[in-house]
Recover the amino acids of this structure.
């Protein structure tokens, strides 16, 4: 009969259902690092250093090339976010919370894709010579959808932070920081969506 310590000394369940966990971690990390400059570029081009829709509308009305590049940048971020979501579900494959966290990130990617499409539509209207009100409406829709996306992203970070905290092989401190960042995203985005548009703006999000 095997000793009683055999079961307790057995290796912990793998964090990855299949494949090399280090490879999954490297792939996910690379996706997150790559999306940072693209997200920063798209954010700065469209929103500048604030979140004033009027300034963004002016940039769209100019029909500048940077706005079109920002749409492409957001599209790249969407793809990289989906890769990151896959990595999360794979790395924490034995955790039920992993699927929910992964799907939350996919949901954020879908909202970001809608926002990018709204921005592209506004840019097309501007280049076609549409009236300023139509372009401004598209810019406003982009801004509102963007904030909704950040709210969903905040929820994703809260779940991811909780997942990291509850996993013995990942640092608890990192999980706390991620969860706190998620709560900040969610609170700030909810405030922007609920408060009057003339409320004093704070700094915009530089990346996702």
């Amino acid at each position: 009969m095997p000793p009683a310590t055999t079961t307790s000394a057995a290796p912990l369940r793998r964090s990855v259902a299949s494949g090399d966990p280090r490879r999954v971690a490297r792939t996910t990390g690379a996706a997150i690092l790559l999306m940072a400059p693209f997200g920063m570029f798209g954010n700065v081009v469209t929103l500048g250093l604030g979140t004033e829709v009027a300034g963004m509308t002016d940039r769209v009305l100019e029909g500048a090339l940077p706005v079109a590049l920002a749409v492409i940048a957001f599209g790249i971020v969407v793809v990289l976010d989906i890769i990151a979501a896959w990595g999360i579900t794979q790395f924490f494959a034995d955790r039920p919370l992993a699927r929910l966290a992964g799907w939350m990130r996919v949901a954020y990617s879908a909202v970001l894709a809608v926002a990018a499409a709204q921005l592209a539509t506004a840019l097309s209207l501007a280049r076609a010579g549409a009236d300023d009100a139509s372009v401004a409406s598209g810019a406003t829709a982009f801004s509102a959808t963007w904030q909704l996306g950040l709210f969903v992203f905040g929820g994703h970070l809260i779940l991811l932070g909780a997942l990291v905290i509850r996993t013995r092989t990942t640092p608890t401190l990192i999980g706390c920081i991620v969860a706190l960042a998620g709560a900040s995203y969610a609170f700030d985005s909810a405030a922007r969506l609920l408060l009057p548009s003339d409320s004093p703006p704070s700094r915009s999000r530089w990346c996702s």
